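Section 3.1: Structural characterization of target chains.
Under the original work plan, the team committed to producing a structural model for every single-chain target entering the pipeline before any wet-lab resources were allocated. The record below documents one such target. The sequence was received from the expression subgroup and is listed exactly as submitted; it comprises 87 residues.
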Amino acid sequence: MKEDLKAQTEQAFQQQFSTTPQLVCFSPGRINLLGEHIDYNAGFVLPAAIDKYVCVALAPTTGDSRRHTLLKMRQHGHSTYWELWTK
């Protein structure tokens, strides 16, 4: 799953920006079973990783420009497809 996510992210980045990303990284999602919004107030928390991931691909741009694109995985029945959102 993670390698597929990384490959899909790299491919979408190359298609969208016509360049190879310099950095691709991913991280598991997290839920708080206990202690939502108290961890930064020195309270007790019980976080847990879940089987959802976020993946980021980055490359430098020229000047002060920044472009963001969101690639969302959708599942419908037994089919998986990717949606590309650009702002």
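The first strand starts at residue 23 and ends at 32.
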